[in-house]
Amino acid sequence: MVSARTRNWILALLFLGWALGNLDRYVMNYAVLAITEDLQLSASSTGLLLSSFFAGYALMQMPGGWLADRFGSRKVLIASVIMWSIFTALTGAAWSLASMVMIRFLFGIGEGGFQPASSKIIAQAYPREERSRAMSVMLSSGAIVGLFVPILSATLISTIGWRIMFVIIGAIGAVIAILYWRYIKLPKEEEAVSNTEVASTSSEKKSSVALLLKTPLLWNLLIAYFSIYAVNWGLATWLPTYLVKVRGLDLVSLGWLQMIPGIATLVGVYASGYVLDKLPQGREKTMGSLACVLVAIVLYLMFNASSVAIFITYQTIVTLFISFVIILLPSVVLKNLPASVTGTGMGIVNTGGQLAGFITPMAIGFIVDAFNGSFSAAFWMLIAFAVICIAALLTMNYEKGELLRKERTV
Q1: Where does the Major facilitator superfamily (MFS) profile domain start and stop, copy by copy (predicted)?
Q2: Residue 404 in this model has a pLDDT that exceeds 80
Q3: Which one-letter DSSP state was computed for residue 128?
Q4: CATH number of the domain residue 56 falls in
């Protein structure tokens, strides 16, 4: 096992890279207000633009995980950062809807290998009882970025413009790729597929991918990922537009107000990692289901809020419960699958989450156009996804499937 000092240094670098990836995704949700005006896009076209990143990102999840398991997580991690940095910078050069959609799609392909590879590195470097907290630290970078992105985006877009902003973010990515190449180094025995963990002793004729696809737990997780990320990305991508066009906020006021749910997300992510490492197996699905019930109820209260202040209060509560479920899902993967197939397993279940990121923003765009600018039907759709997540979590089975049975004997 990697020493405590080394693994914490690796985690800090993963935190930095995931922060940058989230920065690019989140600033697009604010930059799209200026991009829509510059490129004269309808709500449906805006939805297509917001979804294009997730199409590439979802497509790359399973290949990214397989590549991490097959060729090494470090190689995939570095390649991912290099590729996404190139297309982040190119976002600033887009001249039409078609060019923007293609660039964002390729950006998604580039970033798609990051989470499976980084999840595998955590499984390789950390003991099982510390993996939820390690994952929560890495994912908390998204919450921290989300805290500052609203006001940062408003400031940058109003001063240097959205094009130069994306070029700068791409240049930062190049620096991070160099840091990964220089400082993330796993011992060979950690980077190689472990002989003590699953797959090799069962049936060498069966591929790990085939065994994973026959594991019911992964299908439950894929559905839960899709459902909770449909809520998460539906809110993240369209709330800035909703609050400006429906609730009448200006961009700067929006930026400051969105820091409140951003703080709640950060608290929720760190608290969730700690709580999940303390919970006995099986209890997390009950807690996750309860969190989804509360998400559905508070979403209803949120879109019926009588004022912006009440709306933001409910949004803050929703983000707390969403954060718990988002940390819970990868924790189940890290704690129940052998490290030798963690990258592939993470890629499979995360495909669901990123498909939601592709489908939901586009669906909301079409719904808003169909209902003459009303977001009510879109909110009902998000509530329905929260209910689906409840069912997926409640029916999780921790024992069924060859990989899981053998993992219990290791």
Answers
A1: 10-401
A2: no
A3: G
A4: 1.20.1250.20
